[in-house]
């Protein structure tokens, strides 16, 4: 494991897992793999970040407010909580996105911590140069987090075995992976 790296876990929340209001097929399958990555980063003393959708009850992001998505990941609800089996350590930094009624906020780089600091600011403050990204969903929040991470100047590794997609159209996830790789991301798995 290289120094100056961080793990960024994207939106592994109950509403995006089976039984949730915006469930990603097999979304819960990323949890065990991400837990292995968490163990590796903890053992190496490297930082771990977790992004979360954290929407108000009324937002333009939801179809009830003119958006395309059903209500999901509302602040302080069961659906907004991280998956119960995700072994986030107490040291993990949680950053929240979509908190404004006017925001869609797909990218983790639109998220802020409890003090209002953005993800890029927090990563730079720790001297991070490379981020390893996994979570939900491949074709939305993972993709935009990876692309924005590259735009922010970070090296980005996509954890291919720790992502699942929505696939509103067949092939969306495969296209998203291709887009991320063409933009400069590399790929890895828990076994590497």
Describe the structure.
This protein is about 25% helix and about 20% strand. With about 190 residues, the protein is of the alpha/beta class. The chain has a single domain (about 5-190), classed as Rossmann fold (3-Layer(aba) Sandwich), CATH 3.40.50. A 6-stranded parallel sheet has the order 3-2-1-4-5-6, with helices on both faces. Strand 1, helix 1 (about 30-45) and strand 2 form a beta-alpha-beta unit. Helix 3 packs parallel to helix 4. The longest helix is centred in the first third of the chain and has 14 residues, at about 30-45. The radius of gyration is 15 Å and the shape is globular. The termini are close together.
* Overall morphology: globular
State the CATH class.
Alpha Beta
- Major beta sheet summary: 6 strands, parallel
SS content category: alpha/beta
State the domain count: 1
Give the total of beta strands: 6
Order of helices and strands: EHEEHEHEHE
Please state the CA-atom Rg, rounded to the nearest Å. 15 Å
Mean pLDDT: 95
Fraction in helix: 10-25%
CATH superfamily grouping: Isochorismatase-like
Low-confidence stretches: none
- Share in β-strands: 15-25%
């Amino acid at each position: 494991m290289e120094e100056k790296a961080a793990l960024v876990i994207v939106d592994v929340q109950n509403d995006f897992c089976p039984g949730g209001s915006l469930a990603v097929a097999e979304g819960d399958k990323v949890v065990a793999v991400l837990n292995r990555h968490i163990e590796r980063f903890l053992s190496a003393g490297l930082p771990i970040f977790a992004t979360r959708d954290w929407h108000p009850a009324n937002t333009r992001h939801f179809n009830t407010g003119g958006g395309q998505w059903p209500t999901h990941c509302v602040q302080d609800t069961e659906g907004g909580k991280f998956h119960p089996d995700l072994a986030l350590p107490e040291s993990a930094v949680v950053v929240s996105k979509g908190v404004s009624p006017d925001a869609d906020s797909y990218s983790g780089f639109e998220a802020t911590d409890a003090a209002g600091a953005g993800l890029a600011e927090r990563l730079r403050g720790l001297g991070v140069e490379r981020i390893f990204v996994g979570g939900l969903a491949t074709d939305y929040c993972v993709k935009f987090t990876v692309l924005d991470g590259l735009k922010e100047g970070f090296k980005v590794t996509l954890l291919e075995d720790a992502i699942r997609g929505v696939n509103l159209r067949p092939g969306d996830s495969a296209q998203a992976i291709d887009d991320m790789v063409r933009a400069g991301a590399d790929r890895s798995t828990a076994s590497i």
